[in-house]
């Protein structure tokens, strides 16, 4: 019984180490932050700002910041999306910019999923000079509500 407990404890400990290692590897090679915000089913209005909060601890490395759209190709009302983005640093400095995104509407979608995801690079080689919370404010600049877009968010690699 003691041997079984020792083996079980070793397996659990190895599992934790493996999980931590995989997280560290995935964060260095993949998305360090993936934040999606669901949008209203009836359409995303122009004056509805969406917020994504990113907690930064890395002030040394460069990152790529992307905007992610999740949408239904059969029901989306826009193939072009103009987005306004504000990034507020922990010290309240604000960076503002716009991004024009061409959503690829694949009408021959043979996959089982009804949703499509597209990522657009917003800033390459970005550095976060401060540790703490960065607030991303995202809204669109179209006059009509955007229908069929299920979620919007950011990806930081």
* Low-confidence parts: 1-29
Distance between the termini: 46 Å
| Distinct helical segment count | 1
The helix-strand sequence is HEEEEEEEE
Q: State the shape.
A: elongated
* Arithmetic mean pLDDT: 78
Rounded Rg = 20 Å
For the sheet with most strands, the description reads: 4 strands, antiparallel
Describe the structure in your own words.
By secondary structure, this protein is of the alpha+beta class. The strands form two sheets. The protein has a four-stranded antiparallel β-sheet with strand order 1-8-3-6, with no helix packed on it. A four-stranded antiparallel β-sheet has the order 2-7-4-5, with no helix packed on it. The N and C termini lie far apart (46 Å). It is 18% helix and 43% strand. It is elongated, with a radius of gyration of 20 Å.
């Amino acid at each position: 019984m003691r041997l079984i407990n020792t083996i079980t404890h070793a397996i659990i400990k190895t599992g934790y180490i493996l999980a931590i290692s995989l997280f560290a590897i995935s964060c260095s090679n993949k998305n360090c932050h993936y934040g999606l915000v669901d949008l209203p089913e009836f359409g995303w209005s122009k004056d509805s700002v969406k917020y994504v909060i990113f907690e930064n601890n890395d002030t040394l490395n460069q990152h790529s910041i992307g905007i992610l759209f999740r949408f239904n190709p059969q029901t989306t009302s826009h193939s072009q999306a103009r987005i306004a983005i504000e990034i507020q640093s922990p010290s309240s400095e604000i960076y503002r910019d716009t991004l024009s995104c061409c959503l690829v509407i694949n009408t021959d979608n043979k996959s089982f999923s009804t949703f499509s995801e597209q990522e657009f690079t917003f800033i390459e080689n970005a550095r976060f000079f401060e540790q703490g919370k960065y607030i991303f404010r995202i809204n669109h600049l179209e006059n009509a509500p955007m229908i069929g877009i299920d979620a919007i968010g950011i990806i930081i690699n």
